[in-house]
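[job 0412] stage=complex_fold ligand=26W status=START
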Amino acid sequence: MTDKFFDYIRLALKLNFNKDIKSAAPTELYNSIGKAFNAVCSDFPQNEDEKRACYFSAEFLIGKLTKSNLFNLGLLEKTEKMLAEQGRSLNEFEDFDDLALGNGGLGRLAACFLDSAASIDIPLDGYGIRYRYGYFKQTIVNDEQKEEADDWLKFTDAFGLRKDDDAVEVTFRNEKIRAVPYIYYIPGYENNRMNKLCLFQAEALNDFEYEIFDRGDWQDAFSPMVSAMTISANLYPNDNSEAGKILRLKQQYFFTSAALQLILKRHIDSGKSIHALPDSVVIQLNDTHPTIAIPELIRLIINLGESFDTAFEIAGKVFAYTNHTVLAEALEKWDEKLFLKVVPDVYEIIKMIDERLRFELKMLNLKPDEYLIIKDGAVHMANLACYVAFSVNGVAKIHTDIIKSDTLNQWYQLYPKKFNNKTNGVTQRRWLALSDPELTALISKLISESCVDNFNDIKKLEAYADDEAVLDKLFEIRYENKKRLCNYIYKTEHIRLDPDFLFCTQVKRLHEYKRQLMNILSVIHIYLSLKSGELKKINPTVFIIGAKAAPGYKIAKRIIEFINVVARKINADEQTNSMLRVVFVSNYNVSCAEKIIPATDISEQISLAGKEASGTSNMKFMMNGAVTLGTYDGANIEIVQKAGEENNYIFGLRENEVREQSKVYDPLSEYESNKYVKRAVDTLTNATFLDENEEPFNDIFNSLIDEDRYMVLKDLPDYIEKKLKAISDYSDRRSFFRKALINIANSSDFSSDRTVREYADDIWFKG
Ligand code: 26W
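[job 0412] stage=complex_fold status=DONE, emitting structure tokens
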């Protein structure tokens, strides 16, 4: 295959650009490698008969494609060598090889699942939107976040394969548009499995009309084209906040309708009856975003001549639903009128589903209120999903418990058997093998097999927990990773860091519940304690924070600004900066995560207990040997159960305590009664960090004092204590790296191979 692949690269270069490997521009080389990859992939055998799982997701946050694609095909090393001989490298693609079509955890999870399913030989295809602009690029200007469009298609989409033959039409109330699929091959790791990601692009059915153009009404002439293109133009940069925008509903209907049409066509063309659909496809709904697929499938089946009841029954065997959040503001509700305006035919079907539900509830003597799909002028997508889907799952044990007992409790009472837990996971191929090859090599050498293939074997590493040579080696590998990260941060942020420091990191979307504010307040406390002499010295530590805020989320953007203000001042203070540094890494994304995570000693997972459904960066850090400084929330709990509480740093209220507290919580008294809390919080508005011309952060201050929804002030003292303990434990390097090793050795459950295996066994291919 290697020779063929190299031949294809040369051929593509010759045919498209009339160049060879030496003379090609980086984008030309990249494009040709993509085309050669697709040519190789298309030769893989396809089994048309097997049942396929379809992952419907509004987001796929893949990141760089080239290395992981070549890695899975076993072509990575050979290609790097071949390119090196010609004076070229895959690293030349840094700036444009990036498929950032997702916001955060939910989108990245979808990408990990695709990689894992292919690698453990499970037929899973992804369906989504080929956004023209991906997740925005963040810059920091005068300490503030600025957003720029992510123009990922500017140079080339090397891996996308346009499939005009499979284009379908999607009908809205007053327009019909074309959905053109682009295929991205998803190869399994050194097996023969070839799955696909299918992303739809919206286009106008017709070109512009010359008559209108000739009249000089150029805008009118092009307006149908613009309107169609707009649907797949931009990824909504919202995470955990409901964005009830007409365009978002259009996007959801657009890609799910297109995907269903394609899936149904394939099914019928193969000569099978529509009644047998559940034997050939199962659809996993990644949160409620694609839930409009339920009434759409029913509508399409009715159009084939079946009754509503039959269609409903089929849909009930095809759909499974995953919930990813318990935050009320993230549960999707659509204004009924808006729905009617955009997709009236689908709305009619939803009404029929809702009537059926009302009837069933009446039979069961249940009060309809909390179940209804159409209620108070809104369409409740989670209720629709829970009613029709045959499986409902949460993404970590505690999260599933919360949706059962609280968020979706009414449904749990009605259909207890539908509910199940699938704790998230991450792919060790990208998050260990590709991002930390030295560590991977060490582990593989020690356990005398590839730790990538069968990740369960990683447990064998635990036998080396007291092997000093191994612990020292872990330190050395981390040190090299830190050096690399220092170079990157110097290049991007112009801040010089020292690899001898302890690296303490929080990287994730900015949200109040994730409590980046609590992180910076703890840093402020340490800083002020060093200045006042209450703290004589600490092991030199750099606090790294990376986060993007949704552009419309004001207070989140203010928190970013505050972090940057504080970082600037602390880094410039010569009294403390040999011990304490703060860096805000701008434009945190998958590629920069690959550099940050392997260089991190302490992983900060500090959400208020009960709020983070699972978290997945916690798993990536664990796999790379960081210890967790965190709350009992999401998958942190399972991580600590596996790796031992003594090997991590747990603090703060437990979930049941949060529930108790919420009835009586008084942030003002937390602020007034603890002088350290007060001292840190006061820096939001006093002159410690703020220049005269700087506006005080009254808004943040007030949000803490008035409400403190996420109990920052309550958890801050315990957090600071555990943080200082972790930092001081670093003095005994070996014992620190012993903890690191035990974390790595116990991370096998957090491989998405395990997660996908469970989805396959319990949901997709059960029985
Ligand atoms: C409608 C706007 C919107 C957009 C995205 C609402 C909700 C979302 C997602 C549910 C947010 C999200 O990414 N959730 C994260 O999903 C991860 C994968 O399961 C979990 O690990 C995170 O804890 C959860 O916050």
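The radius of gyration is 26 Å.
[job 0412] exit 0
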